[in-house]
Design goal:
Strand content: 5-15%
Largest sheet: 3 strands, antiparallel
CATH superfamily of the largest domain: Intergrase catalytic core
Order of helices and strands: HHHHHHHHEEEHHHHH
CATH architecture of the largest domain: Orthogonal Bundle
Number of domains: 2
Distance between the termini: 63 Å
Strand order of the largest sheet: 1-2-3
Number of helices: 13
Length: about 280
């Protein structure tokens, strides 16, 4: 049985690669399916005959491995994708994995924003880095960008409108597009000048996702601060809310579908985001 499921998995991974899934996503599938293979072996489960009840046992098995809720949910989603593949290949008739019934509730945690002291230390660190590296991290802080959004920016995505310095963000979470305000004026001037000087470059900073992660890790090791790029985004949002900026305006600037702790669902027109960039 072990050889049989491994053969199906090898074809599954190949199919995912052909479908354009990123190497990181395929690695997630492989991680999840290693756990599933072990589960099937230990519990003598035939993967072609998996039931919803056995799916729940698998979820509990993952919890016993002390995996975090997010990781468990990723494994369940990967398992469902695998069984979708088996249905498409007519190996089984229906998908037995019901993610709605198997998902684990994610505990709510407060966003990890930087304290003033941590922020000062991190900024001092990046002040000593190459200009394009410093500007990339400053833009994440002053516009609330995700690391992937920052890495994919093009020079034409930086522009000025009605005295507001803005970033046009493509391909955010859920493939959403939005306008993000650059809320620090000094940073905004530097970013605009950098975009003009590098207007013929394909990528604004010339830094890939993994390169930005490398610089973040280097900052973490050098400063001793638990620094991750996403903390800049949390800091951006926290500072705006402390200044009294309306929650729905912050929500639009971040590109969030919702902010659970304050409002279930809200939307603001892009003109309010432009005002936010103008007045800060």
């Amino acid at each position: 049985m072990s050889m049989q499921i491994q053969r199906k998995l090898d074809y599954f991974y190949m199919e995912m690669e052909f479908a354009g899934k990123s190497p990181k996503t395929v690695d997630t599938y492989k991680f999840a399916m290693r756990h599933f293979k072990n589960f099937c072996r230990i519990n003598k489960v035939k993967f072609e005959e998996l039931t919803l009840k056995q799916g729940k046992v698998f979820r509990n098995y993952l919890a016993q491995q002390e995996l975090k809720p997010n990781t468990i949910n990723l494994c369940i989603s990967a398992l469902r994708t695998f069984y979708d593949y088996l249905v498409d290949e007519e190996i089984i008739l229906r998908n037995p994995v019901n993610t709605a019934k198997l998902r684990v509730k994610i505990p709510e945690t407060l966003p990890g924003f930087l304290t003033e002291r941590e922020k000062m230390i991190v900024l001092n660190y990046f002040n000593d880095q190459p200009k394009h590296v410093r500007l990339a991290f400053m833009l994440m802080l002053s516009a609330g960008l995700r690391i992937g959004e920052c890495a994919s920016l093009q020079p034409r995505d930086i522009f000025v409108q009605d005295s507001a310095f803005l970033v046009y963000v493509r391909g955010g979470k859920g493939a959403k597009e939005r306008l993000a305000p650059i809320t620090d004026r000094e940073t905004a001037f530097e970013i605009v000048n950098w975009a003009e000087e590098n207007k013929y470059n394909e990528i604004l900073f010339g830094l890939a996702f993994h390169t930005l992660e490398y610089h973040a890790r280097k900052c973490r090791l050098t400063t001793g601060i638990d620094f991750h790029p996403h903390r800049l985004r949390h800091t951006f949002a926290t500072e705006l809310l402390r200044k009294g900026i309306a929650i729905d305006v912050v929500q639009e600037a971040l590109g969030h579908a919702s902010i659970k702790t304050t409002r279930t669902y809200a939307k603001t027109s892009p003109t309010e985001v432009i005002k936010l960039a103008t007045h800060l």
